[in-house]
User: What shape does this take?
Amino acid sequence: APRSTRLPYTTCVQSYPGHDMQYVKNEHKIYRFCRSKCHKNFKKKRNPRKIRWTKAFRKSAGKELTVDNSFEFEQRRNEPVKYQRELWSKTVEAMKRVEEIKQKRSEE
Assistant: This one.
């Protein structure tokens, strides 16, 4: 089964549960860090949008796409499609029609 991944505070890379560090503030805000490099920069109060190697910088500087259709497709792909008899029958008919056209073209 696929394991869930979490995005850390600096969003440098995704990490699996148990492989990152957490810092919890008194107001119950949780910061996750993928490595000690991220944690040290957080303790030095550095802004991730100004640090060039972070994803936050890349998105704010326009280096990386913030809205990409492939990301949405990845999220939609895992949802099961509800079975519809009408759609299924139309698809099968279309496949048969395509085969007929292929045969006619190959004969000519």
Q: What stands out?
A: The beta strands are 21-24, 30-33. The mean pLDDT is 80.
